Amino acid sequence: MKILLALDSSTRTMDEAIKFATEKQAHLTALFVLDTTWNDYTGHDWLSGSDSRADFLEYVRDDELVSEVNSLATFRARCPLDCEIKSATGRVSEEILKELAGGDYDLLIMSHTFRRGLEVVRDAAGVILKEAKCSVYLVREEEFRCSMHPDIAQTMNTPAP
Questions:
Q1: Shortest CA distance to 68 belongs to which of 28, 35, 29?
Q2: Which CATH number characterizes residue 36's domain?
Q3: What is d(CA 160, CA 150) in angstroms, rounded to the nearest whole number?
Q4: How many other CB atoms are found less than 10 A from the CB of residue 96?
Q5: Mapping DSSP to helix (H, G, I), strand (E, B) and coil, where does residue 20 land?
Q6: How far apart are CA 119 and CA 135, in angstroms?
Q7: Beta strands in the chain (DSSP E)
Q8: What's the number of domains the chain is made of?
Q9: pLDDT tens, 47-68?
Q10: Residue 95's closest CA among 62, 63, 75, 117?
C-alpha cells in the first residue's frame, strides 16, 4: 500500500498518516507544495506604480519558504518510519493531483480544512475529492464533538417500547 500525505501545518494530520502507515505497513510519502500562485491571485494592477505589490509578493514567498522548512522539520521529527519526502511548486491542489497520478498511490491523507498558501481561500479538499483516483482520508484539526441537552440524551438512551 502506498500513502501520500499532503503536508500543511497540522501535526494531527501528520500523526494520523504515520499511525495509518504503521498499522498497514504501508509506504508513506509526504508532499509539501510551495504555493507559487500568489502573483496571479493578486493581479498585475494591484497597487501598480508602487513597490507595495512586489514587497507583498516577496513577503509571501519568504513566508512560504519558512512554512516549507517548518513543516518538513516537524514531520521529520515526528515520523519514526523510513518515509519519502517530496517538495513541489505551483498551485497546491494541482501539484497534489499530479503526484497522485504519477505515484500510483492507494490513499491520500490531508487536513480538512487544508491550510497551505492560497488553499486557505480555495476549496482544496473539494477539488481533490472530485479528481483523485484513489481514496482520500480527511483529518479534522479537532475531533468533532456534539453536546446535547440532558433530557434529549436520556431519551436517546431509553429503548423504544
A1: 35
A2: 3.40.50.620
A3: 18
A4: 27
A5: helix
A6: 20
A7: 2-6, 27-35, 84-90, 107-112, 135-140
A8: 1
A9: 555 666 667 667 667 777 787 8
A10: 117
